[in-house]
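User: Modeling request: complex.
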Amino acid sequence: MRPNFRRLGWAAHSEAEYLYRVEFDGINGLRSAIDNSLASFFDRESTYLGRVGSELEPVADALGHFLLDSGKRLRPLFAAIGHIGAGGEVTPESIAALSALELVHVCALIHDDVMDCSDTRRGAPSIHRQFENLHQEQSLHGSAEQFGIASAILFGDLALIWAAKMLHESGMSPKYILQALPVYDEMRVELMAGQYLDIYEQAFASESVERSLKVARYKSGKYSIERPLHFGAALAPAAMPEVYSTYSNYGLPLGEAFQLRDDVIGVFGDPAQTGKPAGDDLREGKRTVLIASTLNKVSSSQREAFEKYFGKADLDIAGVHTLQEIIVETGALARVEALIEEMTFNAHQALISGGIAPMAKQMLDQMAIAATKRTA
Amino acid sequence: MRPNFRRLGWAAHSEAEYLYRVEFDGINGLRSAIDNSLASFFDRESTYLGRVGSELEPVADALGHFLLDSGKRLRPLFAAIGHIGAGGEVTPESIAALSALELVHVCALIHDDVMDCSDTRRGAPSIHRQFENLHQEQSLHGSAEQFGIASAILFGDLALIWAAKMLHESGMSPKYILQALPVYDEMRVELMAGQYLDIYEQAFASESVERSLKVARYKSGKYSIERPLHFGAALAPAAMPEVYSTYSNYGLPLGEAFQLRDDVIGVFGDPAQTGKPAGDDLREGKRTVLIASTLNKVSSSQREAFEKYFGKADLDIAGVHTLQEIIVETGALARVEALIEEMTFNAHQALISGGIAPMAKQMLDQMAIAATKRTA
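Assistant: Request completed. Predicted assembly structure:
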């Protein structure tokens, strides 16, 4: 039996209810509206998959859990705030269009886990591992690992297609949907270009802070914050040009700060909070600004220790601690924290001049804090 | 240096020229127009990638060769004929919108090769192998194989995104684009659902002709023929409902016949024509209608021989011949050929009642022959 995905949060049926929620619950109200919208879209699509064949029921289950059980909804939230800030209205239709970004992100995460060979995601097995398990449980023929990978590639594709479908079927006026498509497309091209820059950077084993910052700009600055804000603005009746530039001035530095925080968490994060093993990024050998900044200042003995442990799949907790110490001792952690602070400050400053509706401005200030002060 | 992708075919600059080409060159004229449209879209996008960073130049090169060096353009052709048959005009704008389907197919092929671990595609190394090679040539860090897979996943995603971008930016009236989006989305969901049914069917090692036919219906009937025709019709000002049903009555049987022909070629095809090793589908252990139909009629000694050779990665040419003989002796090849003939006949018949513009009807008859009489 499929779990009941309608159990989530509240269901709003009128514009008045939506507005009430957003005005009184702010960001949490928006997040509930997004969750709710994703749940009803998913419900329709999983019914469709079930009709194609019972073989697709496990697909619908897995995607339902992945989409609905967790997720910070960061990109739809930025899109929704971007929409409000540009004078757009919060309605069930606009929330559906804006929530589509979460499905783009589901595609990115599912494919990312295949690309990284990650076993877990949010404390549960990654999708390719889940279907590797299904292959084993059902004693199917051929390679279980390959079946898991093939499934995850297809489901990531499906999530990307669902995203577009959710936007197209949102019920927003066609005029606004068409207005938003160029930003939507550009965001997705940038995402894939950024992802390739990232894997290339890892393989190139670059020690350049500048190159790592460029990856952070594409992967986070643009994809996670600036473009969602622009997308939200493009879905509003007539956003002023200055709104777009304010969003860029806020989104790009904040996105980099967000990515830098991610990098710090990947090295120093608490497994109980992150759902990932301690020092996971160190084990994976992830080339980040934090690592580049460390390597710029290591002594020769530190470099030796670094090369002994960094990127080793069997890195134990003692090795993790050694690497953490080097990162602290070289001042890299402090430099990255200072960079996060500076970029977050710049993001807040960008809102002052802005041309953004006051409620959205307040929410963007809150989001900047949430994105950079978090521990998971 | 990037090759000059503008070298392809003719460039038409006016509607009159387009119409002239299509009226006098028929399907070949349409194919040239599609090639030309893909080349100019690609040109813009590869310039964009180059601006993001020089790391992306090999990406643009690889995708350019993959997209432009070969390909039968089957889906854009059906879409174009579907458009003409529903009263749509052949213009540079409509050709751009219709050609988007080729990029959807590029996504499917690139991802398919990763899913199947295929080394070659159209006689050249598959994309994931190309980037595995790049990793080795540049002596990059980490697993070359994993880098190849990760790259191919991202480039398949990018092709899917480019497809949507090409449609959105085609310059067709927004009204017609919006009209076509539901068919476009449904086609893509069906594609992914069909692909999963296919890999599940392979792993399930089904011997059911009925189940194999269902996979053929989703993978080819709907995705390759029926939906492209509907997509073309939806891009026309006002297609009559009977046009859609004629396209289904033509497309579904023809699509199955097309897939059955593919299956026959996968077993009996000439490597010089297919660009793949002889008996490749046998080595891969591909569960097709042809195989299910064989297994329904094998003697116990034939089954023994079959199980010894089928799906073995090291299958040699003698083993291929043994399997081919069994497939012929059980009458499976003859039954599948009869099925192809029957379904192709049904497809031709569907056009008689039709409601389809005469030029399109004639082209669809030609396409039915091309799709089912081919040898590669």
